[in-house]
Structures are given as structure tokens and as C-alpha cells.
Amino acid sequence: MKALTYLKRTLACACVLSALTLSQSGMALDLAGVKIDETARVGNQDLKLNGAGIRYKAVFKVYTAALYLTEKKTTVPDVLAVPGPRRVELVMLRDVSSEDFSRAFIKGIHNNSDKTEKAKIANQLQKFGELFSKILELKKGDVLITDWIPGTGTQFSINGKMMSDVLPDLAFYNALLKIWLGDSPADFNLKSQMLGQAAS
């Protein structure tokens, strides 16, 4: 009888552990209450989460940022050179005016691109800046997605709605990536996390 009871308990524990393992393996990463998916579908291709973190300004959480690539990379040159589609997904953690947000984006590009790079993408940068005139404010919970699709270009959407024409140059998408991954990133800890490294 004792042996049977012990066996039942062992089986029950095994079932619980098995369920927990399956649950954990299928769970999305949780950042400040935002679920970050392990994969993303872009241009009919499945991408892997390369890394994700939270953008802080002083002590305030501004947004989560997740980078998706066809294969995981841990250095900036490798990220910029990886073939196939890419995605950066931001989820707002506070309300921010579109003017402040666009100013931060443009500043990030200028801080991490040289004169030659900026001259090459000037027209696309202007179009990108104009899209924020369509938005008064970014609200907590808004989802901003910037995709690179080879043969198509850069697509930018907010809450699933396309917000601009396709911008064709890969150099422009790489300039966007440098906002977070450049030598003067928006947040150094976030840079490390998007590269799949531990934050300093």
C-alpha cells in the first residue's frame, strides 16, 4: 500500500514538473508586463528573438525594444550584415508626444551616422520624420514595428497600421538600428540586451 502511494506521488510530481517545463519553454519573455514573443513572422519568414530590454530615460521606463533576426548575432557588425528580414518592435511603457519621440529618433540617427551615411538617406529620413506629423501622441501600450524586408524595403507600423510609404534603402534601416546599437546608443544597457548580452 505504501509502495502504491509512493508511486502515485512520484507520478504526480513528474506530471507537474513536465507541465512546468512545457509551460516555461513556450512562455514569452516578460518585460515590465509586456510579453515579448520568441519569434516573429516577417516577409514570409520566421525570425528569432535576438534580444530585448527596456529603454530608460533617467529612472523612467519609456518602452520595451525587441530585435528579431534570421539567426542570433552578438556584435553590431554581424547584426548589420545579417541577410534576410529583420524587425525592431517597440511597446510604449508611458505616454510620449510624437514630437518628443520623433526628435529622439532623428537625434539617434544623427548621433550614430556620419555625413556620408546621412547624405545617402536624407530623402528617406525626411519621409520618416513626416510620418510622425500624423500622430499626436504615442500612448502606453502602443506597438511600433519597423521591418526590413529584402526586395521591398523598410515598413513602419503602429498598432498594425502602416504609417508610411516603403523606404527602399537598407542603409536607412541600418541607420535606424544604430539608434539602439550604434556607438552612441539611446541606452547602453538596452544595446547589450538587444545583442543578447547581459546588461552592465
UniProtKB/TrEMBL annotation:
Top-rank taxon, per record: Bacteria
Pfam families the record matches: Chalcone_3
Gene3D superfamilies listed in its UniProt record: 3.50.70.10
InterPro entries: Chalcone_isomerase, Chalcone_isomerase_3-sand, Chalcone_isomerase_sf
Any one GO molecular-function label of the UniProt entry: isomerase activity
Keywords: Isomerase, Signal
Domain Chalcone isomerase: 29-196
Signal peptide limits: 1-28
Name of this chain's protein: Chalcone isomerase family protein
Source species: Paraherbaspirillum soli
